[in-house]
TrEMBL record:
Belongs to the peptidase M67A family. BRCC36 subfamily. Residues 5-143 form the MPN domain. GO terms for cellular component: BRCA1-A complex; BRISC complex. It holds the Pfam family BRCC36_C. Residues 224-258 form a coiled coil. It comes from Bugula neritina. Keywords: Coiled coil, Hydrolase, Metal-binding, Metalloprotease, Protease, Ubl conjugation pathway, Zinc. This is BRCC3.
Length: 274
């Protein structure tokens, strides 16, 4: 049995894409959560953004602890949403390179399929410029491994939704925290255990500060703006709906009043003998 297709909810797609665009220099990754239908199509409706332990290219390794945490998160969602949820795939980014899976990706994917034959891999190729039009290009693919050396494409669909589910909004909000934790761990690892070279320490502290500023500048500020816009839009929708409710209530009251007066109207005596 293999995956016949993969449907990404539009809010999940949006968070994955924001995650992919958060880091230009290295690949980022996460796990996809959802359910399989009777035709073996994977429906992805949630995700887990993963913290990286190794930022070198092609080192998208997911630790057993991260997989266990994601499985527990899927369980809690299943309980909350009252529908089956489990880890059904993984995603990672290819900044400045083609979308196609590398040999390492195909091997990693084959390992995941040993545990779950319908497990899917999604890749987001970002930060690419079309040479002819000079426009920014985003390419996305979904794949499975046939062997450890051969892959096949899985049809990928984006399911357009009008709402942004709360758990996906929470994942989006957790993104800066994940990136800042990665930077903090890298900086702590660079600290010498004894008396280190002062210039090296100063250099590392500056690199750390620059990285934190970069996250704040490229991610936190736009995210705050976007969430504030969303809040204003929601407030406006609330105002409009309250006005609509008031109008409908007035119409109901008016209709009730006219029914009441119709029922209580005295019948007029008509005399034919006048
Ligand atoms: Zn890759």
């Amino acid at each position: 049995m293999t995956a016949a297709g993969c449907v990404l909810a539009s809010d999940v797609f949006s968070v994955c894409l924001t995650h992919a665009f958060s880091t230009e220099g290295e690949e980022v990754m996460g796990l996809l959560i959802g359910q399989l239908d009777e035709k073996s199509v994977a429906h992805v409706s949630a995700l887990v953004i993963l913290q990286r332990s190794d930022k070198r290219p092609d080192r998208c390794e997911i630790s057993p602890e991260q997989l266990t945490d994601a499985a527990m998160f899927a369980d809690s969602l299943e309980h909350k949403l009252k529908r089956p949820m489990r880890v059904i795939g993984w995603y990672h980014s290819h900044p400045h390179i083609t979308v196609w899976p590398s040999h390492v990706d195909v091997r990693t994917q084959a390992d995941y399929q040993m545990m779950d034959p319908c497990f899917v891999g999604v890749i987001f190729s970002v930060f690419n410029i079309d040479k002819q039009t000079q426009e920014s290009q985003i390419t996305v693919t979904c794949f499975q491994s046939v062997t450890k050396y051969e892959r096949r494409e899985v049809p990928l669909y984006i399911d357009k939704k009008l709402t942004f589910e709360v758990h996906n909004l929470q994942s989006l909000v957790s993104l800066p925290k994940v990136l800042l934790t990665e930077e903090s761990i890298a900086y702590r690892a660079s600290l010498p255990s004894g008396d280190g070279n002062l210039v090296t320490q100063l250099h590392n502290a500056s690199v750390y500060s620059a990285s934190v500023c970069h996250v704040l500048d490229t991610l936190v500020t736009p995210l705050m703006k976007s969430l504030n816009n969303r809040l204003e839009k929601n407030k406006e929708t609330k105002r409009r709906l309250e006005q609509e409710k008031q109008n409908l209530q007035s119409e109901i009251e008016a209709a009730n009043m006219s029914n009441y007066s119709a029922l209580n109207r005295k019948p007029q005596n008509v005399s034919l003998l006048d």
